[in-house]
Amino acid sequence: MEKVNMDSLVTVLAEIENLGFTSQFEVNGKSLVSLKTDKHYLPDQIQIAHFYRFEGESNPEDSSIMYAIETCDEEKGTLVDGYGTASDPATADFIRKVSNIHK
To answer: Considering just the CA atoms, what is the radius of gyration of the chain in Å?
Structure first.
């Protein structure tokens, strides 16, 4: 397999999609929602298979984190959030409640 530079969000998203993580998720209230299937998941119904953190080239405060998520019913997708002060409070709170996190 060809080595890929994994330093940009767009590059990592493309590679993760090649691994089957094709859904997109967002946090809505206390649940994670699939934008593909409209299914809702609680923190104990998902696992974070991978996560990647990125910093903006021109502004270190322009940071983001991307989570590759697998659900209890085998849906695979991604969730992108700001990092640090740029994070969404509801998303950060949801992720803190996930106990099954891998790298």
So the answer is: 13
